[in-house]
Specification:
Elements: H1 2-30, H2 46-67, E1 75-81, H3 82-87, H4 96-99, E2 105-108, H5 126-132, H6 135-146, E3 156-164, H7 177-187, E4 192-200, H8 214-223, E5 227-231, E6 237-241, E7 254-255, H9 256-265, H10 277-296, H11 307-328, H12 332-350, E8 357-358, E9 360-362, E10 373-375, H13 388-391, H14 412-416, H15 423-439, H16 446-451
Parallel strand pairs: 3-4, 4-5, 7-8
Antiparallel strand pairs: 1-2, 1-3, 5-6, 9-10
The chain binds zinc ion.
């Protein structure tokens, strides 16, 4: 009997404790958290986000009409605090604090502008514009401006409504918006939370080659810690991605440059520099540093090597490398034999999983010949302190002929005796190449190989 009473009183005590803890918990999630804390995300429910998303859809439809767009797609982004979200059921329209002098809302259509990560001829989607062209940053800064006199800085929420779910895997466009949002959200996770809602999934044709892979989109959003809702036909919102902390890069992640460098060193054709092994190794590191610097120092990208980031690097590095060979090697056809390792190594490195390889910052930032990097999960612009080429006054000194060979993978024997373009030279190169192809059993494809960069 006594035991039963004790048990009952313990159970009662536990109930009281549970109720007390629940009250504290519930009250705390209603309050805004300091800017450095993600806070309790359980407050972000379909019911709580509906009023804001509905007003965003209304705002977006009106803006689309004003812009005269007949496309379905539009994007609206808006920054609030959690307490504003709590108040939003009382809003009849978006308050002046959001749409007024320092607006915390923006409307974006897809554009036709060209951009490094997008393939030519494809529209640039609003999400890319929002992430890479400072749109998110601007509305967050406007929010900060309004909060200047408020010591209890709230943890912010960034609402993103897109008519179509942020895209993934659409053939040939060169990037996936869901990945770009994921990368953005995970990088800034300590400052604010990102919440996405969408109404439809893009499907352009019956064959299905140009459509969004919805499953992949939702997976990317989840990996960014982005809570996601599907706005259904009757206007209700269904939560399709629950909150989980953003995915971290693998602990044993390596750097892009290290992978590229190791690959280049393993190519026997790179021997034409006619240097000793140590110098050749330093020269390849210089090449890797210089090309990487040229392709990252002006980029807006940050963090992960997403599909779009890889596309940007691929296009830039091929262009930079080709232009270097054209401008500095005198005979492109011969230098092309050195392009092949660069192309192959770049392709191989960019095939690595984005969670296991990041661009690297230099371990010795003042040494442009240094072949050591540590993976860097931040803005690409901060990877290098300065241009490796400036470090050596435009002349890497390790080449055999240091006065004319600016580019480390150029064949030094040709730099010593530059030969002009001539029919005889081109024919000789073709004959040599054909003979090599016959020996290698690639007679049928030799022309393709020869013409390939
Ligand atoms: Zn997209």
């Amino acid at each position: 009997m006594l035991t039963k009473v004790r048990l009952a009183s313990r159970a009662g005590l536990l109930t009281v404790l549970f109720v007390a803890v629940s009250r504290i918990w519930n009250n705390s999630y209603l309050a805004d958290k300091p800017a450095t804390t993600p806070g309790n995300t359980s407050v972000i429910t379909a019911e709580n986000v509906q009023p804001i998303f509905d007003l965003m859809v209304e705002y977006g439809e009106a803006e689309k009409k004003k812009a005269g767009s007949e496309k379905h797609q539009f994007l609206v982004v808006l920054a609030t605090s959690k307490s504003e979200m709590e108040e939003s059921p009382q809003w009849e329209r978006l308050p002046d604090s959001i749409v007024g002098e320092f607006p915390r809302i923006d409307f974006l259509l897809n554009t036709n502008g060209s951009y490094p990560c997008a393939n030519p001829g494809h529209a640039l989607h609003g999400e890319i514009v929002a992430v890479d062209f400072g749109c998110f940053e601007r509305i967050l800064q406007n929010f900060e401006r309004q909060l200047l006199n408020d010591n209890s800085k709230p943890w912010q929420l960034l609402f993103v409504y897109s008519y179509y779910v942020p895209c993934s895997g659409i053939s040939d466009i060169g990037y996936s918006c869901a990945e770009e949002l994921m990368n953005f959200a995970r990088n800034r996770h300590d400052e604010f939370g990102v919440i996405v809602a969408y109404s439809h999934v893009f499907r352009a044709d019956i064959v299905g080659s140009r459509k969004t892979n919805e499953e992949r989109s939702l997976m990317s959003l989840k990996e960014g810690g982005i809570i996601t809702f599907h706005r259904q036909k009757k206007g209700q919102y269904q939560q399709v991605v629950e909150y989980s902390p953003p995915r971290k890069v693998a602990e044993n992640a390596t750097s892009f440059q290290q992978n590229m460098n190791e690959c280049l060193r393993n190519f026997s054709t790179a021997d034409c520099c006619a240097l000793d092994a140590a110098d050749r190794s330093r020269l390849i590191s210089f090449f890797t540093n210089d090309v990487t610097f040229r392709c990252t120092s002006k980029s807006f990208k940050t963090g992960l090597l997403t599909e779009g980031a890889k596309n940007e690097l691929w296009k830039c590095m091929m262009t930079v490398t080709v232009s270097h060979f054209v401008n500095n090697c005198y005979i492109l056809a011969t230098c092309r034999s050195e392009m092949s390792p660069v192309t192959k190594c770049l392709r191989q490195t960019l095939q690595l999983d984005m969670w296991s390889v990041l661009l690297g910052s230099q371990v010795s930032p003042s040494d442009p010949y240094s072949g050591e990097w540590k993976p860097f999960d931040g803005p690409w612009k901060s990877l290098y302190l300065q241009s490796p080429m400036e470090d050596v006054n435009g002349k890497p000194v390790l080449c055999k002929s240091d006065d004319s060979s600016k580019w480390p993978l150029c064949p030094t024997d040709l730099v010593d005796n530059p030969a002009p373009w001539s029919t005889t030279n081109v024919l000789m190169l073709m004959v040599t190449s054909l003979m090599a192809a016959v020996v290698a059993g690639k007679r049928k494809t030799w022309m393709v190989d020869w013409l390939r960069l």
